[in-house]
Design a protein that fits this description.
Blueprint lengths: L1 H6 L3 H13 L2 E3 H8 L3 H13 L3 E3 L10 E4 L2 H9 L3 H16 L6 H17 L5 H20 L3 H14 L7 H22 L6
Antiparallel strand pairs: 1-3, 2-3
Helix pairs in contact: 2-3, 2-4, 2-5, 3-4, 3-6, 6-7, 7-8, 8-9, 9-10
Length: 202
């Protein structure tokens, strides 16, 4: 049934659906536009068409401020769409999705890490060297942490660094700095939480 629904779409709608599938079960118009390198308005029309075909459902309150969020109605529809993209194409698409996630005003470290992890796994399976990609991943997460810290969200900054440490190899020269920086922010977070804790009386 899912394959038949996709076959009934025109070329542009099928392309938008495939790129939406790369973004994930939950997706945003801006992310799909970044992945496809299409005009956001054109992507928006494609997503609306996919919603009318009951392949997607629009979410009333988007998790990304200022963007439009959708979810796939059926996981199988996403699986079929993804299966139509070759591995090397998927690597590039996931890297574009990661670039989009890296620029969000409010970082989403899990989403950023997911796209880098998928790109790296697919590249490895194809025999492509991934060292530069791995470095790009943890550096993006460190950058996201800095933006979160600048916004005063230490908990989010720590979460970004958690993901960065998971992807920074033991032999990486900058890992020592990363571990130290991670500990410093964690300590700062703990100190602030202690200061906010009400005094025990009686």
């Amino acid at each position: 049934m899912a394959a038949a629904q996709l076959d009934g779409l025109d070329r542009t709608a099928r392309s938008v659906l495939r790129d939406a599938a790369v973004v994930g079960g939950t997706l945003w118009r801006g992310a799909v536009a970044a992945v496809s390198r299409r005009d956001p308005e054109e992507v928006g029309r494609g997503l609306e068409l996919l919603e009318s075909r009951e392949l997607l459902r629009r979410v009333r309150r988007s998790g990304v401020p200022g963007d439009v969020e959708y979810v796939f109605r059926y996981a199988v529809s996403r699986d079929v769409a993804l299966a139509q993209l070759p591995g090397r194409v998927l690597v590039e698409r996931h890297l574009r999705a990661a670039d989009w996630a890296a620029l969000l005003d409010v970082p989403r470290p899990g989403l950023l890490a997911f796209h880098y992890d998928r790109a790296i796994a697919l590249a490895e399976a194809d025999g492509t060297p991934v060292e530069a990609m791995e470095r790009r991943a943890w550096e993006a997460l460190v950058g996201a942490s800095a933006r979160a810290a600048a916004a005063g969200d230490d908990a989010l900054a720590v979460s970004c660094l958690d993901h960065a440490l998971d992807r920074c190899p033991p032999g990486e020269p900058e890992r020592v700095w990363l571990v130290t920086h991670h500990g410093r922010i964690r300590d700062s977070l703990g100190t602030r939480a202690h200061r906010r804790r009400p005094a025990v009386t009686g």
